[in-house]
């Protein structure tokens, strides 16, 4: 680094047209001041302690600093804009993780065939319907370790819905055409609901105490009053209903049937809104925060933001029979019975 220093210089007049020579004057007292001029010369200045070569370069070239900062700022802004735009592009994957890289539950063993899964409202517990071993498994959501294993003799549960507030799990048994209400405290069957032909899915409204069952062969959805056990409504579907999802905030019941997802008012069972295409999907769910509708199928997981309708997707592995999700916890649980596998997947 250099700086400008001023020193007096005595200029000797020249007799010809050549430029005058500048001679440094060690003794100034005897020199005529009319022959003086100011001259600035560059002299090296030692750098301050604690500065490196890059720091000295930036101090010597302030314009370089401005250029670098401007480039970094513009690059960062462009990156943020592109990232935000991609997040809301239809079909854009919102997470890099899939079930092949997720955490699988060691509590689910060969022969369990997990066919149904549900997550608690606080996203701390996961409930699994093990159709192969006739069990209800309760797992910790964070590490998928076993909390409780409840045998349900005589049942082959193929779907599950949980009312955590009333400590009750509802298990669908398509073989015996019934839904069993299992008390999670005692592990016993507290009540049973007779269903139509080939019940395939179940949903529960803990606030209104309503139970919804999809009867696949009958192409119907039945609604029950849980407190009395009586059937209080019937919904006719255009195709065979295979999965149900309930938004308890907007009171919307979503039905997967005939390759599309239709929505209905959960109280009157009348149509509400336009249907969505469910091509390639096999199971649906609404997350515990009632923000997104999820559709899972072989190799893919898709979601719609319920407020805006924006959709996005990500890749998963296997052929899922059921899915349950918690958007606040950024986690989904996928049940793959063909592989005896329950997997926790990141859904950032």
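^ structure tokens above, recovered residues below v
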């Amino acid at each position: 680094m250099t700086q400008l220093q001023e020193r007096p210089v005595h200029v000797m007049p020249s007799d010809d047209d050549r430029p005058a020579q500048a001679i440094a004057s060690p003794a100034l007292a005897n020199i005529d001041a009319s022959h003086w001029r100011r001259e600035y010369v560059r002299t090296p200045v030692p750098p301050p302690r604690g500065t490196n070569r890059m720091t000295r370069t930036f101090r010597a070239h302030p314009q370089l600093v401005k250029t670098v900062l401007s480039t970094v700022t513009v690059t960062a802004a462009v990156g943020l804009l592109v990232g935000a735009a991609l997040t809301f592009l239809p079909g854009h994957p919102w997470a890099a993780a899939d079930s092949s890289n997720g955490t699988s539950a060691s509590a689910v063993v060969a022969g369990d065939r997990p066919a149904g899964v549900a997550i608690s409202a606080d996203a701390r517990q996961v409930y699994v319907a093990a159709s192969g071993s006739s069990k209800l498994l309760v797992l910790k959501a964070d590490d998928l370790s076993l909390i409780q294993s409840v045998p349900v003799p005589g049942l082959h549960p193929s779907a599950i819905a949980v009312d955590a507030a009333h400590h009750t799990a509802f298990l669908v048994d398509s073989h015996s055409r019934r839904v069993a209400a299992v008390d999670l405290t005692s592990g016993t069957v507290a009540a049973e609901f007779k269903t139509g032909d080939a019940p395939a899915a179940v949903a529960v409204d803990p606030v209104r105490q309503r139970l919804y069952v999809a009867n696949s062969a009958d192409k119907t959805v039945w609604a029950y009053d849980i407190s009395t056990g009586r059937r209080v409504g019937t919904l006719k579907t255009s195709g065979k209903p295979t999965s149900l999802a309930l938004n308890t905030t907007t009171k919307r019941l979503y039905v997967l049937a005939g390759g599309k997802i239709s929505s209905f008012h959960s109280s009157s069972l009348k149509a509400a809104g336009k249907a969505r295409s469910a091509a390639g999907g096999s199971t649906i769910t609404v997350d515990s925060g009632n923000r997104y509708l999820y559709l899972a199928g072989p190799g893919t997981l898709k979601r719609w933001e319920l407020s805006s309708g924006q959709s996005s997707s990500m890749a998963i592995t296997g052929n899922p029979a059921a899915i349950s999700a918690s958007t606040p916890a950024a986690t989904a649980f996928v049940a793959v019975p063909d592989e005896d596998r329950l997997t926790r997947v990141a859904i950032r």
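The first strand starts at residue 2 and ends at 11.
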